[in-house]
Design a protein that fits this description.
The protein is of the alpha/beta class and 363 residues long. The protein has a single domain, classed as Aldolase class I (TIM Barrel, Alpha-Beta Barrel). Helix content is 37%, strand content 14%. An eight-stranded parallel β-barrel has the order 1-2-3-4-5-8-9-10, surrounded by seven helices. The chain has a two-stranded antiparallel sheet with strand order 6-7. It is globular and about 75 Å long.
C-alpha cells in the first residue's frame, strides 16, 4: 500500500458536535411555548388554504446577530400583533443562517461571536435558547432552512420556513423541506423566473428518502411524507421587481397551469425593493391596492425590519456595533414598521372578509 494519503486532503480538522437530542434536553419547550408553535402552524396552514382570510406577515431583522436586540424587537412586535390581529398574523423573522454569493458572515449559528471563530455549538445553543424564549413570549418565528443538518436542532421551534432563491433549485433542500413540520415558502430564482419555485413545489409535496441525521446524531436514511403546505414567494430578480398586479397574475396563471393552488407571498425586500429599504413601504401599499381590487392569491408579505434603519458592516472592534442595526441587508426601522403594518391592516380590513365568499358573490 502506498503511504500517499488519498482521503480528507483538504480537511484540517473534525470536531464532534452535541446531538440534537442533547441540545433539546438542555433547552426544552414549556407547555406555553408548545402552544405558541402549534397554534401558529395551524393558523398559517389555514391562511394558505384560504379558510383564514388574514394576511401572513413575516417581519423582522434580515438576520439575528444580537439576542438582546432580538428580544427587544419581539416585545414590540407582540404589542403590534395584538393591535392588528383581526387582519394580520405576524410572525417574526429569526434568520440564523445566511447564504453567501462568495464570502461573508454566514450567520449567528456558524459564527455567533462575529469574529470568524466559528463556534458553531455555541451558536446552536444560543439560537435554541432565543427561540425558546420567543415561543414562551407567544411570538411565532420564521427562519430560512439553509443547512440540511441544523433543522434537527431547531425546527421544532419554527412556525414558517423559507427556502431561498439560491437554494430553491437544490434537490437537497427540496428533500429536506419535504420533511419540515412547518409550512415552507420557496422563493423564485435569482433571475426572477418562476420555473425553479414551481418545480420545487411539485417536488416538496411528494415523499422522499435521503441521507441525514436523526435526533441522536446518527447518519440515517430519512423518509418523509411530503410537505403539502408549501407556496411561492415572489422576491424579484435580475430583471427587476415582480410584485405588481401583472406579475402576480402571471404567477397565478403559471401555478394553475402546473396544477397548484395559487398562494403567493410577496417579499417586500431584495430585488422587489431594489435593495433600498425605503421601497419596502411602496411594495406594501401596492399589495394593499391589489387586495382591495379583489386579489385572492396573495396570502402574505415578508418584510426586513429592525429596531433602527439601514445596516452596518461588522467592525473589527465589536464594541463599535450599533444597537438594533442590521449587519446584513438594510432594514426599515421599528417606527416605519409599526406605521406601515397598522396602515395595511386598516386599508385591507374591508376587503379581507370578501375572501371567504364564493367568487360569484364578490363580482
Amino acid at each position: 500500500m502506498t503511504e500517499t494519503p488519498i482521503d480528507d486532503l483538504n480537511v484540517l480538522e473534525e470536531q464532534p458536535l452535541l446531538t440534537p437530542a442533547t441540545l433539546k434536553a438542555q433547552f426544552p419547550l414549556s407547555e406555553g411555548a408548545e402552544k405558541t408553535i402549534i397554534e401558529a402552524r395551524k393558523t398559517i396552514r389555514s391562511i394558505l388554504s384560504g379558510t383564514d382570510p388574514r394576511l401572513l406577515v413575516v417581519v423582522g431583522p434580515c438576520s439575528i446577530h444580537d439576542p438582546k436586540a432580538a428580544l427587544d424587537y419581539a416585545s414590540r412586535l407582540k404589542t403590534l400583533s395584538e393591535s392588528v390581529k383581526e387582519h394580520l398574523f405576524l410572525v417574526m423573522r429569526v434568520y440564523f443562517e445566511k447564504p453567501r454569493t462568495t464570502v461573508g458572515w454566514k450567520g449567528f449559528i456558524n459564527d455567533p461571536r462575529l469574529d470568524d471563530s466559528f463556534q458553531i455549538e455555541e451558536g446552536l445553543r444560543l439560537g435554541r435558547e432565543l427561540l425558546v424564549s420567543l415561543a414562551e413570549m407567544g411570538i411565532p418565528t420564521a427562519t430560512e432552512a439553509l443547512d440540511p443538518v441544523s433543522p434537527q436542532y431547531l425546527q421544532d421551534l419554527i412556525s414558517w420556513s423559507a427556502i431561498g432563491a439560491r437554494t430553491a433549485e437544490s434537490q437537497t433542500h427540496r428533500e429536506m423541506a419535504s420533511g419540515l413540520s412547518s409550512a415552507v415558502g420557496f422563493k423564485n430564482g435569482t433571475d426572477g423566473g418562476l420555473d425553479v419555485a414551481i418545480n420545487a413545489l411539485k417536488s416538496v409535496s411528494t415523499p422522499h428518502r435521503f441521507l441525514g441525521i436523526n435526533h441522536d446524531g446518527l447518519v440515517s436514511i430519512i423518509e418523509t411524507r411530503g410537505n403539502r403546505h408549501a407556496h411561492v414567494v415572489l422576491r424579484g430578480g435580475t430583471q427587476g421587481p415582480n410584485y405588481d398586479a401583472a406579475a402576480v397574475q402571471d404567477c397565478e396563471q403559471q401555478l394553475i397551469k402546473a396544477g397548484i393552488r395559487p398562494a403567493i407571498m410577496i417579499d417586500c425586500s431584495h430585488a422587489n425593493s431594489s435593495k433600498d429599504p425605503a421601497n419596502q413601504t411602496r411594495v406594501i401599499e401596492d399589495v394593499a391596492t391589489q387586495i382591495n381590487d379583489g386579489n385572492r392569491s396573495i396570502i402574505g408579505l415578508m418584510i426586513e425590519s429592525h429596531l433602527e434603519w439601514g445596516n452596518q458592516s461588522i467592525p473589527q472592534d465589536l464594541s463599535e456595533l450599533k444597537y438594533g442595526v442590521s449587519v446584513t441587508d438594510a432594514c426599515i426601522d421599528w417606527r416605519t414598521t409599526e406605521q406601515a403594518l397598522s396602515q395595511l391592516a386598516n386599508d385591507i380590513g374591508g376587503a379581507l372578509s370578501d375572501r371567504l365568499l364564493p367568487l360569484e358573490q364578490t363580482a
